[in-house]
Amino acid sequence: MSERELGAEAIFDLLVIGAGPTGLACAIETQRAGFRAVLVDKGCLCNSLFHYPSHMTFFTTSELLEIGDIPFPTTNAKPTRNEALEYYRQVAAYYKLDVRQYRLVERVTGADGDFRVHTRDRFDRPAEFRARKLAVAIGYYDLPNMMDIPGEELSKVHHYYDDPHPYSGMDVAVIGGKNSAAIAALELWRHGARVTLIHRGAGMHRHVKYWIKPDIENRIKNGEIQALFESRVVEITPDTVRVETPQGPKTLANDFVFALTGYHPDFGFLERLGVECGGVGRLPACHKETLESNVAGVYLAGVIVAGERTNEIFIENGRFHGRQIAAALAEKLKPQSVR
User: Fold this and answer.
1) pTM for the complete prediction?
2) Which of 52, 93, 125, 172 lies deepest, with the highest CB count within 10 Å?
3) Which domains are delineated in the chain?
4) In whole angstroms, how far apart are CA 9 and each of 38, 64, 298?
């Protein structure tokens, strides 16, 4: 249907901000309960997954990524990023989900029962969507933790790792000590890069997956990947990185930097909605059973429920939030016909 048919004139029962796996699950469960749902995302369907490394393999099995009671077929013990993108595309098509891609939500006005969600598309054209309830499933992968050091703005500095091929024969620094840093360092080294891993901890993080940790530690032990622990990058220049180490400052030749220092939820967006985020871990105010925030009619889903504790909620458990929200809607709303 065109935006003129289902845009400003229509009022949806639920508008989901974020079309990742958790957002899709919210829309699916809402439709199955007899309500009309729409999803709005500033990028493509499953935008965060799309920006994962192109050769990534999930740490979990396919059945733990399933939504909408649709089986996730794979020939591998653990599915790949490309298989996941295909799966979620097919699920969205099966349920005929109304997904408005490339729609940046600028602000939300109105109140419970009649929210107005103001968006802009890729060409800066405005649109407004009306909804009786909102679900915020924006994840956290879009906002990297910045180092706030000179040179971080240089084009050679990346906060996301994609593919090793362009860095063969290059001096590459990988900053971080968790799974993403370990995987990037290993792939870059195996594809011909000269890799230095820099981490403020005394060694690789204890949460690095059990089959990755010995691999990266053996490469470091053998001198194939250089590692600087208990160290931090203090400046990046076009040709070097300057590092403070326990042995004193070091200046390393450098062509590219992958600052894989983690990511955080968009607390500013939540606070502009009126959602309270405070205390240890900046946990958003959220009812444990219904997932409704302190703002009437605004529900939270996925990793943002855990605030800064982003290692507590994943697709595996966030996918069930849709059922909780749909059950809460059933208690408050009379279903409309879904077309």
Assistant:
1) 0.89
2) 172
3) 3-143+263-332 (3.50.50.60), 157-259 (3.50.50.60)
4) 14, 38, 21
